[in-house]
Amino acid sequence: MSRLSPSSLRPSRAPLRHGLGAAVLALGFMTGAQAGLFDDEEARQQILQLRTQLDQTQRSLGERIGELEAQARNRSIIDLFNQVEALKADFAKLRGQIEMLQNELDNSQKRQRDLYVDLDGRLRKIETQLAASATAQAAPGSAPSGTVAPAPATGAPAAAEPPRGLPSAPAVTPPAIDPVAEQRSYEAGLDLFRSGRFSEAIASFQSFLRTFSRSTLAPSAQYWIGNALYATRDYRGAITAQRQLLAQYPDSAKAPDALLNIATAQSDLGDLQGARSSLQEVIAKYPNSEAATKARQRLGGR
Known about the structure:
rod-shaped, Serine Threonine Protein Phosphatase 5, Tetratricopeptide repeat, mainly alpha, about 300 residues, 9 helices
């Protein structure tokens, strides 16, 4: 029977070393696997965070763009509003200027009417004095003082006497004109014209002409009818009225002004050629009149 040595009773270290190495390898593998798993999860978390940040950034950019677009729209609206306000201010300024010019025009027309009325009054006085002087000179039996009426020539036939038994024909005398009523009627038309009641002034002057057709104021009445028609913007009627004055009273002091007013009405109607012809007619027929001076100025002459 063999004896066992102490060395044989000791366990072998090779298998133990082999098992320990395997365990170490297994542990390293598990550690590496876990580390790989941990690295992938962190990467996924980072990716998710990046995506979240990207989404937030996109939303922020979208909101910012929307705000910028809204601001741009609001700015456009504000600019448009400012332009509208500026146009309103310009319009108000122009309207004020138009009203001022209209007021100046009305005042100018009123001063012109007053001037015409004043000139008409002066001319009327002169015409009345001339008419009175002509009537006094034409009155029968009004021989100048200091002269003796000539005696009938010898042998001249005596004035034929109406046969006896027959009534003599009555002398035809024009109806007497009341100068006070004539003056009042004319002044009534002028007062209506001065106050701007042109339609009533026309009717008043027409009534004057029917009642006092042989009055020395008839040309002036016809002249004011034309002016009143022009004031109502009846330019054709004004031309007709002034032409009637020229036809009936060609030698009247109102004739040059009537022809000048015809040119003005023609110009307002757009008949520039007719207006030019009328202005030239004023200069040709009444070269020394004030109307001729105005006609030359309108034609551009000196």
